[in-house]
Amino acid sequence: MAEKKAGPAKAAKAPAKGASALQQKLGKLGLHSRNDLLLHFPLRYEDETAVVPVNEAPWDEPVQVEVRVTDVSIQFRPRRQLVARCEDDSGELWLRFLNFYGSQVKQLETARDEGRKLRVFGEIRGGFFGSEMVHPRYKSVEEGSALPQSLTPVYPTTAGLAQSALRKLIGKALAESDLADTLDEAQLQALDLEPFAASARLLHAPPPGVDEFALQNHRHPAWRRIKFDELLAQQLSLRRAYLARREKGAPRLDAPGALARQLLAQLSFQLTGAQQRVWQEIARDLAEAHPMQRLLQGDVGSGKTIVAALAACQAIECGWQAAFMAPTEILAEQHYKKLSAWLEPLGITVAWLSGSLKSAKKKAAQQEAAAGAQLVVGTHALIQADVDFLRLGLAIVDEQHRFGVAQRLELRKKGKAGIPHQLMMSATPIPRTLAMSYYADLDVSVIDELPPGRTPIRTKLVSDARRDEVVGAVRHAVESGRQAYWVCPLIEESEKLDLQAAIDTHAILAEELEGLSVGLVHGRLKPDEKAATMAAFAAGEIQVLVATTVIEVGVDVPNASLMVIEHAERFGLAQLHQLRGRVGRGAHESACVLLYATPLSQTGRARLKIIYENTDGFEIARQDLQLRGPGEFVGARQSGVPLLRYADLEMDADLVELARDLAERLLRDDPPRAERHLRRWLGSREELLKA
Ligand code: ADP
Ligand code: MG
């Protein structure tokens, strides 16, 4: 089950110059010290403690047999392969090797000539030649040589590093390392955990009679201890970063809130209860003398932008600047328009800075930022070297998961007059366990309520054989005064093909929807062309917008009530959810049509089913996490955070909570112990986390 985690997730450092070949291979596995070896636990176990007669061995299950070699040949049909005919007293067995070395042929021939026995481990199946094993593991043994007494560990390894060699190294590390417990007796008792030393020994060298099922399934108490330790290290490291940040100074943004109240008074809507709550949480943080680092989560359409605008007002009222960074031109520009419409009437100066501005305009925008423009909205252009802020007090990052750790740090560094407060927003809902685990160094606010009056979006799954009907539905929507998006397939391997698909689709649809105005927007358009197209769509001049995923995040055109996604099976769930969130923003009944190509793979079907059955982003994310594991969720962030190798956030949710509690207590009451634990688990990797 843990097989998918085979590639160790540790950030592999480049091996030091002059490292031996062995060291380099170990380095590839993230193993840089004896201690790393100690914590390199098996992926699974093989049972070599018994041999079974060939004819009694069940098929398609790992078994060990002991056979004599009777015949060795290289055959060419159906393809070139090494074939050894073997037998024991019960029957015959063919061994087949499609890739083999000359030395292997010799070895098998010697075994045949000298009558030596082979101990062979693998799965038997009924094959081309009869009962056969393909690419089994084998070794030649003396007559009557003893069988191992315990299960054999199988470790994650890399090309050129044999299991046997790795096993030996780890055995040595186990014998020579200090296995002292990082937790004391009382802590073990309270948490119902096994001692570390016993757990490590058991996992590397399981004793005879161990509960094999629990061991293979990572449910053995020894695994529980290791998983806990891993989670504890993660929590300690994130928590420590969090506390370190609280030591730093930031401007107190504690104005009475007159600007924010003015903004609220001129809105055409009232904040939802959830928006009010998160706004209070943010306002409280801003008033403190250390930098806020808060993640504002809220499903697509939950209304995060207005909350960010309120935060900006707070900074501005205190005489500081706010920066608002978004990941795409389209989105940043849309924010710029919306924020200026809200804030300029209050007398606030709003500047626009994007990479696509002509150089004179860009210079001017940079000068505005340097001269103290109260709010600066833009793309990555905000973090370029030639941008300076006079007094940056608040940095807002929209769709934060689209940015890397380094980019968010860059924005923070723009605060020449001190560290600015940071507000990060994300519509990719992060399941609770994941948030607790990977975002333990952030404070999290959640908007868990949509503004009232939204009609739910109907989702339909339609085979692309019925594409004509869907085109009819688009025409119908437009004739009823609505607008539609038509999202084109994503072709992973090639941005060019991707683009071509969008261009072709646009041409075809323009023909099929003759008489309607059909626009096209994709990532290769010049920013001003993109902006013009989006503006025309927002103004209703374009009725149907053919788009690639550039419209995935944040775009807000309330009159668009129909979204068609072609080849929906190729999209990630979070992406589909985001795309679907582009409609259902007005009062009109909205629909999202997921066109899929047949035949659908099993996972393809499972994924579309999740989107079809769920509208709650958190539930979708939870199920997605089950399908995919955490790696892709944390995205760019993972560069700074060790992925978990042993703990599983779904299965071990209880341990995540326990580890979090203990981490907090240790850092408060027993820092040396926390330090010892971190050294064992992060050792050479800790510096990576300081990013
Ligand atoms: P997201 O959280 O996805 O960024 P937005 O901030 O873009 O959502 O908000 C979506 C739409 O809902 C916008 O048009 C916004 O003005 C509107 N909106 C936000 N809050 C409310 C509210 N409390 N009542 C009604 N409409 C709201
Ligand atoms: Mg948004």
From TrEMBL:
It comes from the Bacteria. Coiled coil: none annotated. InterPro entries: ATP-dep_DNA_helicase_RecG, DEAD/DEAH_box_helicase_dom, Helicase_ATP-bd, Helicase_C-like, NA-bd_OB-fold, P-loop_NTPase, RecG/Mfd, RecG_dom3_C. Pfam families: DEAD (PF00270), Helicase_C (PF00271), RecG_dom3_C (PF19833), RecG_wedge (PF17191). Its EC number is 5.6.2.4. GO terms for molecular function: helicase activity. SMART domains: DEXDc (SM00487), HELICc (SM00490). The keyword Secreted does not apply. Gene3D superfamilies: P-loop containing nucleotide triphosphate hydrolases. Residues 473-626 form the Helicase C-terminal domain. It catalyses: Couples ATP hydrolysis with the unwinding of duplex DNA by translocating in the 3'-5' direction; ATP + H2O = ADP + phosphate + H(+). Residues 285-447 form the Helicase ATP-binding domain. Keywords: ATP-binding, DNA damage, DNA recombination, DNA repair, DNA-binding, Helicase, Hydrolase, Isomerase, Nucleotide-binding. Belongs to the helicase family. RecG subfamily. Plays a critical role in recombination and DNA repair. Helps process Holliday junction intermediates to mature products by catalyzing branch migration. Has replication fork regression activity, unwinds stalled or blocked replication forks to make a HJ that can be resolved. Has a DNA unwinding activity characteristic of a DNA helicase with 3'-5' polarity. PANTHER family: ATP-DEPENDENT DNA HELICASE HOMOLOG RECG, CHLOROPLASTIC. This is ATP-dependent DNA helicase RecG. It comes from Azospira oryzae.
